[in-house]
Amino acid sequence: MTPGRLGLLGGTFDPIHCGHLDAAEAARAALALDVVWIMPARTPPHRPGRPTASAYHRFAMVALAVADRPGLLASDFELIEEGPSYTARTLDRLAAAGWRPWQIVFITGADAFADIASWHDYPAVLDRAHFAVVSRPGTPVASLRARLPALAPRMQDVRGRLEPGRSPAIFLIDAPTTAVSATEVRRRLQTGEPLDRLVPPAVAEHAR
């Protein structure tokens, strides 16, 4: 059995921004995760069209963003796999490598989780790992119980290190995250507007 508690934050990261990093750090602190993999998707299943930046550059920007953040790691786990980067497939591959559901925490923003019913292999995907849902500006986690009543019994506010063998749960984490989107960052890149406090300086330099 693979030791440790693994956090996963997937996404297109076109580019990665401070909101992503805030969510990763909030989940790592709240659930005492040993490491969080930041995983750029090879083929984002929920996004129409191709990402603006190549997979190489998206991974490079993730690596630059986490270089000075202990506990966060750039991962190519989804980039090396052909086909759409479905969360369910990623979790199945981790299970095949020896990870147990109680060891894995899939991290997502509350805005993305509000559309969980559209995810591939829902609702079974929720049995493959814990989910940590972090508040985003305009979508506090407190709103999710009412928006997703069928999942409300699985939602918990518990904090602390995960117990071995614990059944997969949905942890609601109310933490501040930067009000930014990758769409806004790309717009600013096109117009030459500043990116201060929206992306790490190294990412801004690479993206320009």
Q: What do these coordinates show?
A:
With 208 residues, this protein is α/β, with parallel strands linked by helices. It contains 7 helices and 7 strands, in the order E-H-E-H-E-H-E-H-E-H-E-E-H-H. It has a 7-stranded parallel sheet with strand order 3-2-1-4-5-7-6. Helix 2 runs antiparallel to helix 7 (201-207). The longest helix has 14 residues, at 18-31. The chain starts with 5 loop residues before the first strand and ends with a helix. 41% of the residues are buried. The mean pLDDT is 93.
Q: What is the fold's blueprint, element by element?
A:
Layout: E1 6-11, H1 18-31, E2 35-40, H2 55-66, E3 72-74, H3 87-96, E4 104-109, H4 110-113, E5 130-134, H5 144-147, E6 155-156, E7 170-173, H6 182-191, H7 201-207
Parallel strand pairs: 1-2, 1-4, 2-3, 4-5, 5-7, 6-7
Q: Keywords for this structure?
A:
208 residues; alpha/beta; 7-stranded parallel β-sheet; 29% helix; globular
The biggest beta sheet is recorded as:
7 strands, parallel
What class do helices, strands and sheet pairing give? alpha/beta
Number of helices: 7
Morphology call? globular
Widest β-sheet, arrangement of strands? 3-2-1-4-5-7-6
Low-confidence stretches: none
Let me know the number of strands. 7
| Mean pLDDT across every amino acid position | 93
Task: Give the oligomeric state of the chains in this entry, treating copies of one chain as homo and distinct chains as hetero.
Answer: single chain
SSE arrangement, N to C: EHEHEHEHEHEEHH
Helix content: 25-40%
Distance between the termini: 43 Å
Beta percentage is: 15-25%
Provide the gyration radius in Å: 16 Å
